[in-house]
Structure formats: C-alpha cells, structure tokens
Specification:
The complex is a heterodimer of chains A (109) and B (121). In chain A, 0% of the residues lie in helices and 55% in strands. Chain A contains no helices and ten strands. In chain A, strand 8 and strand 9 form a beta hairpin. Chain B is built from no helices and ten strands. In chain B, 0% of the residues lie in helices and 47% in strands. In chain B, the strands form two sheets. In chain B, strands 2, 4, 5, 8, 9 and 10 form a six-stranded mixed beta sheet that branches. Chain B has a four-stranded antiparallel beta sheet with strand order 1-3-7-6, with no helix packed on it. The chains are: A mainly beta (109), B mainly beta (121). At the A-B interface, strand 4, strand 5, strand 8 and strand 9 of A face strand 5 and strand 9 of B.
Chain lengths: 109, 121
C-alpha cells in the first residue's frame, strides 16, 4: 500500500499570499495518477487537479499542481477567502487500495 | 446536470446491516467506474470500494473485505453498498463518487453529498 504524507497539517496565510501544499509518497507514483481534492467545511470533496497537473473542469487557474516520483505539490498562487478548506492528495497508480493523504487545512490569517 | 444522490444512512447497532444507494443522473452511468469513499467524523477520506462500469470488477479496502459488497444496477442508474456485520469503526459519512473514466485506477470527478452511517448501541 502506498502511503501519502501531506504537509503541513495546517497552513495559515493572508489573502493574496501564495500557498504551497506538499504530498509525499512512500514509493514512486506515476505523475499520471496523482490527484488533488478540495473539501470545504460541511461539503463533499471536489476534484481540483488530476494527472498531477491538469486542472479539472471549472477550477480557477490560481490552482496548479506539479511534481513527480514521490514528491508532489499543490500551489494556490493568490489565496482567496473562499479557498478555506482541507486539501487532500490521492494516488491511483497502485493495486488496490488506492489511498488518500491525511489532508492539509488552509486557514486565512 | 451531473448529479449523485446517496441515501440509506441510519443509526444501526453493532453487528447490524445496512444498504446504501446512490442515484446517478446526467451522464451515461454504465460507462464509468463508481466508487464509495468514507469519512469518519473529524477524519480524512478513506477509499472503500470501486466497481467497474459493467459491474464485473470490484475491489475493497482490507477493513471491509468479507463484510461489504458493492454492486450496481445500470438499468436503474444506481450504485449500492451492502454493509453487513457493522462495527463502530464503520461510523462515517459515505460518499459515492464517479470516476473520470472506467477502471479502478481513477480520480473522482463528481461526488454526492454523502449519507451518514452511525454504528452504536
């Protein structure tokens, strides 16, 4: 089973700042099989990024994904108040079970 | 509009059974893998089980193997999760989610709002 470790646990930033979220895998993951999700309080998750760097439909271009191997990053270029959420990475490269990271909570300072 | 609506969540005693349903609309249901994902209160997401578009392939996380069964009725555009021998640690919001394509190696592009399952005496 591939374990995904996200850091930091919590990120507290001011509006307009750049947010950098990390997802590290316990073994190499094909970049084609890494996704990021956003979950706002009280809501279901929403797909943000698939294939490590492809924005899903309707996702603003301030969200971007990058990385390869065992290290992946989600960047929010200019934080907006509506970006308050927990962000999860997911790998779907391996045999089951597919796994999610533990999440990074983004707060507005 | 693409939509997933879960139902069937309830309070159930340990050892009991429950069947969750997920009604899909707005897309060709049989063309996509569907997945159940759960989230325990205050915790992260846990992948539970996917089923292929045709229904002939399914997988399970180890903690539910032998107790849960995923199935689908493509004529009714509905996904199911039969949950038996329920334990306290199964308490969670259960989401159904659509894969972006067929096959279990899949990201999940559409999610329902979830249904709450509470296992307690």
């Amino acid at each position: 089973e591939i374990v995904l470790t996200q850091s930091p646990d919590t990120l507290s930033l001011s509006p307009g700042e750049r947010a950098t979220l990390s997802c590290r895998a316990s073994q190499s993951v094909s970049s084609s099989y890494l996704a990021w999700y956003q979950q706002k309080p009280g809501q279901a998750p929403r797909l943000l990024i698939y294939g490590s760097s492809n924005r899903a439909t309707g996702i603003p271009d301030r969200f971007s994904g990058s990385g390869s191997g065992t290290d992946f990053t989600l960047t929010i270029s200019r934080l907006e108040p509506e970006d308050i959420a927990v962000y999860y990475c997911q790998q779907y490269a391996s045999s089951p079970p597919l796994t999610f990271g533990g999440g990074t909570k983004v707060e507005i300072k | 509009e693409v939509q997933l609506v879960e139902s069937g969540g309830a309070l159930v005693q340990p050892g009991g059974s429950l069947r969750l349903s997920c009604a899909a609309s707005g897309f060709t249901f049989s063309s996509y893998t569907m997945t159940w994902v759960r989230q325990a209160p205050g915790k992260g997401l846990e992948w539970v089980a996917p089923i292929s578009g045709s229904g002939d392939s399914a997988y399970y996380v180890d903690s539910v193997k032998g107790r849960f069964t995923i199935s689908r009725d493509n004529s009714k555009n509905t996904l199911y999760l039969q949950m038996n021998s329920l334990r306290a640690e199964d308490t969670a919001v259960y989401y159904c989610a659509k894969g972006r394509r067929d096959g279990y190696k899949n990201d999940l592009d559409i999610w329902g709002r979830g249904t709450m399952v509470t296992v307690s005496s």
